[in-house]
Amino acid sequence: HTALMLAWGRKLAVVGVFYMIAYTLLTTSMLPAGNFFALFFLYVCAMVAGEIAILINVPPLCFMLLVGVAFGQFYPLTGGLSSAWSKALRAYAYSIIFLRAGFGIDLRQVLKHGPTIITILSVVAPLIESVIAGAIAYALFDFSYLWGLLIGFVLSDVSPAVTVPILLDFTKRRLGTAEGLPSVLLLSGTINAVMSITAFYFILNILPEFTTGSIGLAAARIILELICGFAVGAVVAVRIGVFFHSRDAFAQTVYILSSSLALIFASNYIGYPGGGTLAVLTSGALIGPMVPKTRHEVEQKLKFLWIWTGQPFLFSLVGALLSFSVMHPDAIWKGVIIIGVGLAVRTVSVVGMLRMIKSRFQNNDIKFISLAWCAKATVQATLAPVAYSIATSSNFSSEAIDNSVNVLTIGLLSIILTAPPVSWAMQRQGPLWLRVEEEDKVEVPEPIGGGVDVQLGDVLGSETLV
Questions:
Q1: Residue 240: is it exposed, middle or buried by C-beta count within 10 angstroms (0-12/13-18/19+)?
Q2: What's the pTM?
Q3: pLDDT for residue 29
Q4: With left for phi above 0 and alpha for psi between -120 and 50, is residue 461 left, alpha or beta?
Q5: CA 202, CA 461: separation in Å to the nearest integer?
Q6: Residue pair 265/84 in contact by the 8 Å Cβ criterion
Q7: Helix, strand or coil for residue 175?
Q8: CA nearest to 277, candidates 95, 87, 88, 107
Q9: pLDDT 10s digits, 48-107
Q10: Using CA atoms, how far apart are residues 273 and 81, in angstroms rounded to an integer?
Q11: Residues 155, 338: Cα–Cα separation, whole Å
């Protein structure tokens, strides 16, 4: 107990020092009702909640999410929290998590399974969920089927922020690696995110209230987005591999992360967010084999950034988006039905198709895949507010605003209902269901270069933080 109190005392002292430095530099912005004070307060509360969660063996994202929800409802100074800063910090967290996903993919394992499984997990199952969820939404709400599809594609993504850290931890522990399960899910999950984002904007662009052109132009935009995303990601990876392969891990991490941030922000600015996500994933997957000597160190530095900055900001800011004052009460129970039916259909389709094609995965592997494929958080937090933001800022009709509020409500509700329990279940059931690969069967990679390995397990007390 004494050691724990001393550790908390040191952390509080560090927080105090940081606040004084920030106040000296930013003055009024670090006073109550200031933007940076709100961000600082939210970050500290999220980190404290995460540490408490670790002590009681609960995934930290659960408590971080709850802190954000409480912040959005009850904190009297939320007017100081800039929506622009919130979007920027969430984009920063997305960059880290998609990079980690790219670095964690073993392309050799993925190629052993072929494209069929990837297509089922990343495209077919999400499309089935989108169509069914859209049909249920159309039946429950008084709006067109296109609005229902918009809700369907908001719900169709599996959250990288929930699944990627757990899958990377399982890779390190060799859980399921003999079958290549973590790599398959890392790649499929990110392609799923790209598909959901591009499909969402396609539907948004052909909605009568939001239309900016013909269906043909919207379809051409999707194709262009995917081609450019892959090409730009490959160019970034080759540039880093050629010009930075001999640099130390810190320099590589700085350049890789700054390039990813530039891709995410630029793609959002020009209206092609799916392309930026695909570019980051592509660059991460291709860079790893190009820098084998420093790959492990770069991965550890990205892990450090995720634990200490990306995770607390992402989940607390996502929780803060939830505003009960904006929600329609009847949308909540209707949303629960839509989400529940969508998850049931997604689970049945994943299990059925994987068994039908007689994949290499065993029954327990398929059970874990169906569980992991229920997590929702990252893309839902990105897409759910889009229609509402456009409708309220452009003086749209009251009907369009009401419809967009329903999209926002159901998207954020899916995060609350799925992210915490799925994260907990994955960490609990994964070691029980997945087979540990024997050491003599593990393919030995090229030697890893020297350097400082950034480990936070000793500092924070548990690997479950990720």
A1: buried
A2: 0.83
A3: 67
A4: left
A5: 45
A6: no
A7: strand
A8: 95
A9: 898 888 888 888 888 988 898 888 777 644 455 777 888 888 888 988 988 888 888 887
A10: 24
A11: 9
